[in-house]
């Protein structure tokens, strides 16, 4: 049986500090890029579904997709890509194809 990703964030709302800069993963995910893509945790998708979609959307390795899916589960969200606004919208739209909760934002 596949393990789903939990919908509720791993952190309580009081522990989330909105003013902290979001760290963009290593250079393969666009470190220092003007925009980022954030994926949020949910109860509906298995780790495997998220990993496959991350690979399709970002071109990352299976190992990187696995690490990102575990970060999404543990922290409630993860920055999965960084790049130009158009690149981030393209990645976000691919992730949304399976109804992942995704947001694009300006990087700090």
Question: What do we call the CATH topology?
Answer: Ribosomal Protein L30, Chain: A
- Helical segment count: 3
Overall SS class: alpha+beta
Structure summary, number of beta strands: 3
Q: Quick check: average pLDDT?
A: 81
CATH class: Alpha Beta
- The named CATH superfamily: Ribosomal protein L7/L12, C-terminal domain/Adaptor protein ClpS
Q: How are the strands ordered across the major sheet?
A: 2-1-3
Query: Percentage of helical residues?
Result: 25-40%
- Using the alpha-carbon principal axes, give the shape: globular
Number of domains: 1
What does this structure look like?
This protein is an alpha+beta fold and 108 residues long. The protein has one domain: Ribosomal protein L7/L12, C-terminal domain/Adaptor protein ClpS (Ribosomal Protein L30, Chain: A). The protein is 35% helix and 17% strand. The chain has 3 helices and 3 strands; from the N terminus they run βααβαβ. The chain has helices spanning 47-58, 62-75, 85-96; strands spanning 35-40, 77-83, 102-106. It has a 3-stranded antiparallel β-sheet. Helix 1 packs antiparallel against helix 3. The relative contact order is 0.27. Mean pLDDT is 81; it is low at 1-30.
